[in-house]
């Protein structure tokens, strides 16, 4: 679904409809037929459904089963915190008992709430406005406590800024970009930043020059960098005793294509 969201703007240049459709058809059977919720990782039998993957699916899907939307909205209401953000896991005790759980069994995560906003913007505009105000008024972006699953892989936040801006809730970057990528992920964060800059500021000539340099550099030797260093999609809570990381060899190519698109358009 992350790939679908990344390459959707390319539809005017390339035929990506079949790719997006394939992703959707793969994920659709995993949607609970009664609740409309999804689990990130089905291998864990006891893993609860979660805010991030559920919101992202309904935001990106094109064949909407409207009968399930109200059920999803009702679930979100049950997991709304006092500060207006939504909890990650659709279970009151979150991941209690899982070795990968951090200091909080059910944390409030920035990226998950960005995806929740996009879902609400599409299906419940009034609730979306409330969430937008909560994200801004509580200065969520500048508080590392809310960078739960992308603390070391901030590239997704920069992409999320584009969608948020296009959906009437522009959010600024974390002060001086204090969230740092791990060494092998720096290129991916830089690609995402350039995509953001070119998408939201078409007259940024400096970003254009950097984008061209990066497109050429990463394409060398048949995209060798991508095969050597997969992209870190996200990780578990870094306060947990057991670390879990989730990697992708496909997303780097989607990022590169999106950067090419933004450079080409501008």
Task: Walk me through this protein's architecture.
With 266 residues, the chain is mostly helical. The protein contains ten helices and two strands; from the N terminus they run αααααααααββα. It has helices spanning 2-7, 17-27, 51-60, 66-78, 110-123, 125-137, 155-166, 186-200, 205-228, 251-265, and strands at residues 231-235, 245-248.
Secondary-structure map:
Blueprint: H1 2-7, H2 17-27, H3 51-60, H4 66-78, H5 110-123, H6 125-137, H7 155-166, H8 186-200, H9 205-228, E1 231-235, E2 245-248, H10 251-265
Keywords for this entry:
mainly alpha, 266 residues, two-stranded antiparallel ribbon, 2 strands, 10 helices
Number of helices: 10
Q: Pairing-aware structural class of the strands and helices?
A: mainly alpha
Q: Percentage of helical residues?
A: 40-55%
Low-confidence stretches: none
Could you spell the SSE succession in H and E letters?
A: HHHHHHHHHEEH
Strand content: under 5%
């Amino acid at each position: 679904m992350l790939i679908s969201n990344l390459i959707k703007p390319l539809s005017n240049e390339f035929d990506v409809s079949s790719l997006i459709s394939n992703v959707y058809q793969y994920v659709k059977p995993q949607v609970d037929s009664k609740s409309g919720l999804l689990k990130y990782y089905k291998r864990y039998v006891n893993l609860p459904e979660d805010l991030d993957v559920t919101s992202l699916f309904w935001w990106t899907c094109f064949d909407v089963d409207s009968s399930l939307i109200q059920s999803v909205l009702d679930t979100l209401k049950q997991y709304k915190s006092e500060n207006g953000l939504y909890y990650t896991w659709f279970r009151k005790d979150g991941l209690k008992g899982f070795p990968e759980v951090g200091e909080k069994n059910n944390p409030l995560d920035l990226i998950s709430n960005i995806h929740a906003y996009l879902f609400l913007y599409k299906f419940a505009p009034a609730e979306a406005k409330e969430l937008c105000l909560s994200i801004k008024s509580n200065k969520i972006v500048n508080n590392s406590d809310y960078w739960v699953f992308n603390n070391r892989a901030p590239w997704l936040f920069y992409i999320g800024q584009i969608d948020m801006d296009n959906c009437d809730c522009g959010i600024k970057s974390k002060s001086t970009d204090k969230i740092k990528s791990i060494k092998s992920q720096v290129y991916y964060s830089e690609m995402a930043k350039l995509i953001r800059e070119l998408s939201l500021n078409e007259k940024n000539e400096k970003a254009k020059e950097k984008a061209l340099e990066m497109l050429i550099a990463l394409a060398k030797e048949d995209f060798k960098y991508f095969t050597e260093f997969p992209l870190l999609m996200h990780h578990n809570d870094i306060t947990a005793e057991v670390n879990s990381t989730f990697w992708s060899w496909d997303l780097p190519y989607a990022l590169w294509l999106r950067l090419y698109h933004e450079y080409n358009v501008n």
